Amino acid sequence: MNITSIEIWQDALNSYLPLDFHDHRGVNFVFIKDATGLDADEIAAQFYGAGSKNYRNLKMPKRTVVLKIGMRAYTTGSTYGEIRDFIYKFIATTRTGQIQLRFMNESEEIARLYGYISKVESAQFDQKQEAQLTIDCIDPILRSPIITNVPILGMDPSAFLISDEKSTAPHGVTLQIHVLSSTPSITIRDPYFDTTWSFTARHILGFTAGDIVTFNSESNNRQAWILRGVNTIQLADAIIPGSTWPIIFPGTNLLSIDEATKVELQNINYSAAYWGV
Fold it and tell me: pTM (2 decimals)?
């Protein structure tokens, strides 16, 4: 991932603090001097399902990002005290307490990371003035703000590819399925890697023609529901115990639906995910 700056956004006024790595013109009164916690320094294998073998997803614990911010006083028409006050006010005006770190490559936003400021440090009497922000991120994964829609024209539910060449970390996917004829259940498999791996939803009333069934397997937002006419029916209790939620890995992924003759794919999308910068 190539980045040239980090922007700190808060929700109060939809405002942000731009922090460039290479502000050669010196037009900004703050800039990045150093940043830590943006790599994948601790990775653990976490069990998430089983088929003919146990499956473990590589996960990261909570991420702590530390930004060392340099200050340009006087040349930008501000004093060090005014810049420190601005940073304090900027942080304090967020209503939810949450901030966004947006990772930019020039004007293009590559990824976002959400967290909470846990510490603000400033050595007021050092010759080179700087502030240090510590941000705790419960979800450590950097995620693209852009939703990638997978082309589904002519896609066969009995075997369909989902390709992700941007991500460097596994992530979830949203699958939207249109039911063509009644079926008691819908089962998704990985026919290439292990056909015993499966994810099954079995609703007490079954799935009927015209239903739009949606599965979202993102780890921090797993959901399943039916849109039947104008009514939404939640499927949380319909997921069969032992089911393994579909995960998309960097590269090419092959999935299949057992009831391929009774359904068609209506939409597939995901947001690219990154372990670090």
Answer: 0.84
